[in-house]
Design goal:
By secondary structure, this protein is of the alpha+beta class. The protein has 16 helices and 14 strands.
Length: 460
């Protein structure tokens, strides 16, 4: 899942408490632009939260200036629940919801949303499956869009002929992707980090064609249930309307079933270097290990430290050493991707094949120096200033706000998570960064995948 907070503006010191008046002023300006109600003195966004009678958790922000409503519903129905040998089940289930429902075929559903100017979306990550709706708030248009959206979730028909067509289409897409170096390196990297865990598995042409209609029906019945749902809404409706809408959208969802057991993420026991031969002109490189889960106490020291190491773009150490000083790569980066269970810490780059070993050495030396000495106070102060200064841009659209609301709900984060984010960044010290990286990023356990060089596998 793309991380919302620990991949700073990639394209994602002072130890005293810094006054927040300038930040509040900027946030107030954004609130005025986007039509948000004035937040209480202690809140960045006026998030309202409640639970529906059937167990769905709801997060709502009123934005009154534009007659638009954005809804996102996330279910605990991610790819980590795919049975071995049927990887792709979660993604197929999510995609097929719009292919037939309540007596309507896929064309009627698509035309129904289009006729009222509504937009529907969806997608699946390892941790969750998401459905989204954007609609006008005028009575006729919103009623039609919400009715169709609710029917799609509650009454999917999973037409067998359409499923077979989509399985073949997906299998062909996977075959085409499987020869690309960026796909090969990502999959090999995931398999090294998570050899015994669903986070390391991927759909294949062979796995998706084994999925049956009965599999989709069962997966929907068990995982698309109200107690497994987080409903996020932002738009020009009242709290009473939002409450009624949340109950309506979740009232006819399946009863649900027990969650399949998911193993714990196991930490690596040694470092591994895997080289995979590929005719591409460049080597694609990924280095890392399982990192942290959402809510980890080291999250903010790692966020700030990683900005200095490789997450800050032009101002990061990896960029300076690998690109600026030696011209070994056009782009080099690092990030943490927290998930429900520890997600990966990743360093990535591409370099000319003949420069592969040199680039690897420079990356490892840069990381080793950072782990040994930590950041300087000047680096820390600059990183915190950049992160806090850029924070308002993280909530400058409905889509970004919805993503945060879903994260808060799915990972059981406190309601004041966004409010405290700048403060917690400002509180990070040099020693906290050193300690957090020492605990999490252990060089003796790093996995490295190189796609492009001669095939081999060896210990580091």
């Amino acid at each position: 899942m793309p991380d919302l907070l620990l991949r700073p503006a990639r394209a994602h010191t002072l130890t005293r408490r810094t006054p927040r008046a300038p930040l509040r002023a900027l946030l107030a300006g954004l609130a005025a632009v986007f039509g948000l109600y004035a937040a209480p003195a202690s809140a960045v966004l006026p998030i309202e939260h409640w639970t529906t009678p059937n167990g769905a958790r709801v997060y709502f922000v009123r934005a009154a200036s534009i007659p638009m409503l954005d809804v996102s519903i996330a279910f605990d129905a991610g790819a980590r629940y795919d049975p071995p040998g049927r990887d792709g089940l979660a993604a197929l289930t999510n995609a097929q919801l719009a292919k037939g429902a309540g007596g309507l075929d896929e064309n009627a559903i698509a035309e129904g949303f289009a006729s009222v100017g509504a937009e529907r979306g969806g997608g699946v990550s390892d941790d969750r499956a998401t459905l989204s709706l954007r609609t006008l708030t005028s009575a006729t248009e919103m009623e039609a869009a919400v009715t169709l959206f609710e029917r799609m979730m509650a009454e999917p028909s999973f037409p067998a002929a359409v499923l077979e067509r989509e399985k073949q289409r997906l299998a062909q897409s996977l075959r085409e992707a499987s020869i690309r170096p960026e796909t090969i390196v990502q999959r090999a990297f995931g398999q090294l980090l998570y050899p015994q865990h669903p986070y390391g598995r991927y759909a294949t042409p062979e796995s998706v064609v084994t999925v049956t209609r009965d599999d989709l029906v069962a997966f929907h019945r068990e995982r698309y249930a109200a107690p497994n749902a987080v409903v996020a809404m932002i738009g020009a409706i009242t709290r009473a309307q939002a409450q009624a809408l949340a109950e309506r959208l979740t009232a006819r969802l399946p009863a649900g079933g027990p969650a399949p057991a998911v193993p714990e993420v196991e930490r690596p026991l040694s470092a591994v270097l895997r080289r995979i031969e590929h005719p591409a002109t460049q080597s694609h490189i990924m280095i890392g290990l399982p990192g942290i889960a959402w809510g980890d106490p080291d999250q903010f020291p790692l966020l700030v430290g990683n900005y200095i190491l490789g997450g800050g773009g032009f101002v990061s150490r990896l960029y300076a050493e690998v690109r600026e000083k030696r011209g070994l790569a056009y782009s080099v980066y690092s990030y943490f991707s927290p998930m429900l269970q520890p997600g990966p810490f990743t360093i990535g780059l591409q370099t000319q094949k003949e420069q592969t070993d040199l680039a690897l050495r420079v990356v490892r030396e840069t990381l080793d120096r950072f782990l040994k000495d930590g950041p300087t106070q000047a680096e820390l102060d600059a990183a915190k200033s950049n992160l806090v200064g850029g924070f308002p841009l993280r909530i400058d659209s409905n889509r970004k706000i919805l993503d945060y609301l879903i994260a808060i709900g799915m990972y059981r984060l406190p309601l004041d998570y966004l409010e405290r984010w700048p403060e917690r960044v400002q509180q990070v010290t040099v020693q906290q960064v050193r300690d957090a990286f020492e605990r999490i990023v252990r060089p003796e356990f790093l996995s490295t995948v190189v796609v492009g060089a001669a095939a081999a596998q060896e210990r580091r």
